[in-house]
Amino acid sequence: MRHIISILIENESGALSRVAGLFSARGYNIESLTVAATEDPSLSRMTLVTRGNENIIEQITKQLNKLIDVVKLIDLVGSSHIERELMMLKIKTTEQTRAEIRSLVEIFRGQIIDATPTSYVIEMTGTSEKLDAFVAAANPDSIIEVVRSGATGISRGETGLHL
Amino acid sequence: MELSGGQILIQSLKDEGVEFIFGYPGGAVLHLYDAIFQQDDVKHILVRHEQGATHAADGYARATGKPGVVLVTSGPGATNAVTGIATAYMDSIPMVIISGQVPSPVIGSDAFQEVDMVGITRPCVKHNFLVKDVTKLAETIKKAFYVATTGRPGPVVVDVPKDITDPNIKVPYKYPKKITMRSYNPSVSGHKGQIKKAVELLLSAQKPVIYSGGGVVLGEASGQLTEFTQLLGYPITNTLMGLGAYPATDKQFIGMLGMHGTYEANMAMHESDVIIAIGARFDDRVTGKLADFCPYAKIIHIDIDPASISKTVKVDIPIVGEVKAVLEHMLELIKESKAKPHKKALDAWWNQIDQWRSIKCLEYDRDSSLIKPQYVIEQLYEVTKGRAYVTSDVGQHQMWAAQYYLFDKPRHWINSGGLGTMGFGLPAAIGVKLAFPEADVACVTGEASIQMCIQELSTALQYKTPVKIINLNNRYMGMVRQWQEFTYESRYSHSYMDTIPEFVKLAEAYGHVGIRIDKPEEVRPALEQAFALKDRTVFLDIMTDRTENVYPMIEAGKGHHDMKLRVALGTPTDRELA
Asked: What is the pTM (predicted TM-score) of this model?
């Protein structure tokens, strides 16, 4: 099952490699990993998407908690949460395909943020599933490149992951 | 007080109460060594190889409970230390390793003797630091000791670039008395409700087993464990790392469990209905085949590390906490409880255990004309009256020492259980002897293991650490040979060295006493002679039966109830080895 683990970690050099190293050393897989400083510059927030059965996810969260630099973490899946991922997709366009692409972008509530006579860059945010759906709907032969941020997430309601 | 980085580091160690640093100098740590030269409080022990420094510090830590301290230079000094760091990590030994690093401005430029020590050690340390600012040095050292010694202990590396220790840059020095880290809160006392449930389950047991490990030694909970066990009257087995936490000579002790554990311990585990694991981590050498592990038992597990719980074996009542505090709480509840252990069920259980005991799984051929390694350990036990500190290397000799030397006290059995590091025994013995100069210290080893760190014989002379080396010389890498005999149809691939040094001469060359022993009747007098030579390191080169195997044995992929026993095989002394 897919899990989104949100981690509050000391913003020290090497913190990212401690997390990434843990995953490779213990044979866990990382589907995506995003990291950036928070409003408190001494802390980073990391969002990690991984897959595994209940036992593996339990071990992953325990092993992450064991890292000295990790302050707190939660597994967002299992409680009510919002997930977003940013994608930029560059696609070849022709006279004939432009209208179709524009309407597809509209359906998925994306935006065209760059255009040349032969290409568009489309920006889209949403759940990873939605982005997957858009990529599947686009003509694979016309996709030039796809850049995705990896998922980030936040819990719904008043509670949150903070000190 | 204004000090240079080099002085700050040494002063911090002094303020931390450090007695010994085990180290080896080199370019990146020259400022530090100059600071060491200018003081006498912290004694530096010069080893002959950085691996030796880590094992000696490790031995010191295991015997005393205090953190071991290592100082190595950058590059090869740092990489040589890695085996010893990983050894300490696998057995949760508190250690602080200070490694020199090339000057900050050239980090990343492939400078002479540069290696990414923080990167290399990341998977085998509890934590590591790269010091980037001399004003943070004292605080970093304090953090290193705090992290290394609290919670589940472990090694911590502090990588110090050369410019940080520059004697010309002086900054105010103050060693923090206390430190708090928002991301690290190690102290936990155990969930009260879980403890209550555990006690209820324990008191309802018909066939209970107490299975305790190295966590009891590390957590200084041997006294609590002993009281707990004797109050309940339940059988207790120890892991390899837990030996000595409960007196091995007591009648409730049913021996070590696991791959080379006793028949009675493994059978009791297999048949039990309630197991309480205390400071033990269900290592694969203990559990055997997981699917067959304790099929009838409900399991209680006390561990300070939540990640140890349900890692390999799913447990019914987990308790995260310090073993000492949890056991004390349990003792109170048991004493208050109206429920008492089931006398009748327990009698039947002990009868069953005594039947298993009666096969005498550790018996061996005592009439052999060859020296039996088991006999040597039994004699070592008698000559030292069971009171010696015994270190070991890794292999058959390690298992025999664990099986035949009956440890009654914690911290006296010192071996590399998790990583299984050959070469550990001799430097570890030196570390122990430095801590306890008056105690008998024996290093049980084999002719293969001892050669992995034999250069430390020179250190033993320099610092007058008269340890006794008990070399069980069977001219084979015995454990490798045993596995090849059992599972590779006796194809002894490279488990033998064509040339083995004359250890007597080698010992003498290093300035020690060497004695070779060829006959069983020479063993006892030689041991007595060795331990009578109080101020000399003695190397006993004992020619043992080459064909001897370690029994009982649970072979890879088998369960506790499926043991290979010597009794079933006869005594194979006359077997010709190919």
From this structure: 0.95
Facing B306 at nearest CB: one of A13, A18, A62: A62
Decide: residue A88, CB within 10 A, 0-12 exposed, 13-18 middle, 19+ buried: middle
Q: Which of A43, A66, A161 to mutate to test the interface with B (most CBs of B within 10 A)?
A: A66
Q: Which amino acid is at A70?
A: V
Letter string b/e over residues B441-473, b meaning 16 or more CB atoms within 10 A of that residue's CB:
bbbbbbbbbbbbbbbbbbbbeebebbbbbbbbb
Residue type, A31: E
Q: What is the 3-state secondary structure (H, E, C) of A22-50?
A: HHHHCCCCCCEEEEEECCCCCEEEEEEEE
Q: How far apart are CA A141 and CA B560, in angstroms?
A: 59
- Residues of B assigned a catalytic role: 50, 112-113, 162, 479
Distant-in-sequence, close-in-space partners of B366: CB < 8 Å, separation ≥ 6: B372, B375
Q: For residues B136 and B551, what is the distance between their CA atoms, to the nearest angstrom?
A: 54
CA–chain centroid gap for A87, Å, is 9
Query: Looking at CA atoms only, how far is residue A95 from chain B in angstroms?
Result: 51
Taking the alpha carbons at both ends of chain B, their separation in whole angstroms is: 70
Write the single-letter amino acid at B353. Answer: I
Name the pLDDT band for A16 (thresholds 50, 70, 90).
very high
Q: Is A18 on the interface with B (CB under 8 A)?
A: yes
By C-alpha distance, the chain A residue nearest B128 is: A68
pLDDT tops 60 at residue B114: yes
Q: Rounded to whole angstroms, how far apart are CA atoms B514 and B539?
A: 5
Helices (H), B272-407: 284-287, 323-336, 343-357, 373-383, 396-404
Chain B residues near residue A60 by CB distance under 8 angstroms: none
Which tokens belong to B475?
């001219």
Residues of B in contact with A163 (CB under 8 A): 182
Among partner residues B119, B126, B307, which is closest to A62 by beta-carbon distance? Answer: B307
CB nearest to A70's CB, from B130, B183, B314: B183
Interchain contact, A68 vs B147, CB within 8 Å? yes
For chain B, helix (H) and strand (E) counts, in that order, are: 21, 20
Query: How far from B441 is each of B59, B237, B537, CA to CA, in Å?
Result: 11, 25, 10
Mean pLDDT of B79-98: 98
pLDDT digits (tens, 9 = 90+) for B396-436: 999 999 999 999 999 999 999 999 999 999 999 999 999 99
Q: Map tokens 């409900």 to a residue.
A: B298
What single-letter amino acid sits at B259?
Answer: M
Average pLDDT across chain B, whole number: 96
Closest CA to B345 of B270, B407, B274, B432: B274
Chain A residues whose CB is inside 8 A of the B307 CB are: 59, 62-63, 65-66
- Could A66 and B305 be called an inter-chain contact, meaning their C-beta atoms sit closer than 8 Å? yes
Secondary structure class of B326 (helix, strand, coil) = helix
What's the DSSP call for residue B451? G
Closest alpha carbon within chain A to B148? A68
CB atoms within 10 A of CB B299: 21
Phi/psi-derived region of residue A160, left when phi > 0, alpha when psi is between -120 and 50, beta in every other case? beta
- For residue A92, give the amino acid letter: K
Planar angle of CA B61, B441, B454, nearest 5 degrees: 85
CB contact under 8 A, A18 and B183: no
CA distance A7 to chain B (A): 12
Among B119, B123, B305, beta carbon nearest to A25: B123
Q: Would you state the pLDDT for residue B569?
A: 55
Cα distance from B126 to chain A (closest Cα, Å)?
A: 8
DSSP B67: P
* CB-CB contact of B41 with B450 (8 Å): no
**B158 interaction partners in chain A (CB closer than 8 Å):** none
